[in-house]
Design goal:
40% of the residues lie in helices and 15% in strands. By secondary structure, the chain is α/β, with parallel strands linked by helices.
Amino acid sequence: MSTLSAIHGLTSTVFSNLFITLPIPESRPGLSEKTYIVSGANQGLGYESCRHLLRIGAGKLIMGVRNIDKGKAARLSLLEESKRSPDSIEVWEVDMANYESVHKFAQRASTLTRLDGVLANAGIFAEKFSTLEDNESTLTVNVVSTFLLFLLLIPKMRETPGGDCYFVIVNSALHYVASTKELVPRTKADGKPRSIFERLNNPDEADMKDRYNVTKLLVVFVTRAFDARLKQSKKPGATIIINTPNPSYCKSELLRDSKQTPPPDFMARTTEMGSRALVHGLLAGKESSGQYLTNCHVQA
């Protein structure tokens, strides 16, 4: 983490939240034919993103949730507000802390007629080291499972006719303050190289105060890497656009288990305002692929 990077992250967040009103997503031709998936869809940024997608006319919405009962309750609220037909919204179970669940969700998605966009909104903020699957919990949910889902859905996205397909991963300006000390290559006592994952998964060395920030920095790096691979690929089918927008600090449930003192409420965006940035990611142009987005534009 450089001092200039940290200052930029902090000042841009303060300025954005106090002085910038994000544009409300607008309808456009062809949305009524499109199908979108939103994970973490029953509350917060995910729920508000669902509201916008329905309002602007998305044809079908798949709500990916861990808790089916909560998902069904959120679906009923969305149906009542949007006045849409019951078959326009489905609730599917997916637990990003469980690789098998991610595989099953992707297999189910492969049966869809089309898949035009995925908003990978589900994420966690953990301050204590614990393991989920084969990695530290934040790493599993925010990075590994997210990109596992992306890889598993690529075939279905390529099959979708008539335009570009989007995979959007929620990010944070906190990646600017992430320390890179855990990402520096090291060697073991025997002189063999030590992987980054070995370092991140070592409970004796893990810096959990910085872990969420590091996962968001990794998302930026991996998004760029996959975008480069996709652009080099000669495989036929729809163009896949992957980007990572920052909704900025919002008053949501992300920090519900944190012992850290959150910024004051006047510094926070509403989840509705933040969700505008996420829906923008699903509607942005090809220039957004591989990019970190903030305030509904590519951050240079």
